[in-house]
Amino acid sequence: MKRKNRDRNSIISLILIIGFLEVCIPSMVGMANVDVVKITIEGTSITAFNEGGRVLWIKNLGNDITCHVLTDLNKDGKNEIIVGTGYKPGDKPGYIYVFNSSGTELWEYKTGTGCERVFHHSDIFTVTHILVDDLDNDGKKEILVNSHNVPWYPARLLLFDANGAIKQEYWHPGYIFDVKIADIEGDGYKEIIGGGTNNDLGHIPVIFVLNPQIMNGQAPPYCGNFPHASEKYYKKIPLSEVRKEGCSVKEISFDGDRLVASTEDGRFFYYDSNMNSLGVGYSDWYIQQIEKIKEKEFYAKTYPLILTIVSIILSIIGGVFLGAFLERKGKMPKRKK
Ligand SMILES: [Ca+2]
Ligand SMILES: [Ca+2]
Ligand SMILES: [Ca+2]
Question: Pairing state of beta strands 267-271 and 277-282?
Fold first, then answer.
């Protein structure tokens, strides 16, 4: 009888141990796996997940998170999280933050800092782009951040090293709506290509190419005391009839070897690797707008002419009828037969 009880107790203990291991081992493995492989953004909050899908940490930054990048910045085998913020609703607008996988903040920077050196607007900024790449071929990653003043301008491109030190900065008198990194000539050195609008040159669309090693400075027409930048190329695009008051380059893309600047009004400007123009394309929308404009111009010119002709015809008809009326009333001398 005693032997039977012992066996039963042993079986129960074994079942309990197996159950404990089944529950605890995956959990312990999950705890050991603390690298962030995915983040989700909801308004002002970041949620970081490990490979098993477990939430590692949640952070609320107070301001809307406008862009983010997950990358191993310092090559320690774990990802860092880089996020940029907008201008509301909190009191830290246009900040860039870098967190490690544990959620510890490594550094932060306010992108609206130093605005008074170039344009005398407020330091309320919003971050619009974060790109990470090795821009000087030293095997270490740099962080390129695009931001701009709200609601005015300028825009500012900042190039940071992984530790948050500013390597280069470029100020632009108008928003930079798109920024890309590419080696456009294929010489082994990457360029920064930006597109946007230049408010101080008449709100024209512009596309520019910067050498990341020497991009420091401000774009034309220059104000304040900040040095003038030496862009590799700075291309001014004329305004069109569709957007006479102002227009911008909204997107930069690549079509084979061609660089394409797409403007807000539906035009496509093609360039070769030396930024020589290869022609212009037009969207259906742009063509329709031009047709509407021509139609309006045609009617604007012909309406006065039509009105003049109609009024002449009406006065002739009116004169004839008035003559006949007066004749009937005997107020006009009867015509001799
Ligand atoms: Ca790392
Ligand atoms: Ca580098
Ligand atoms: Ca190049």
Answer: antiparallel
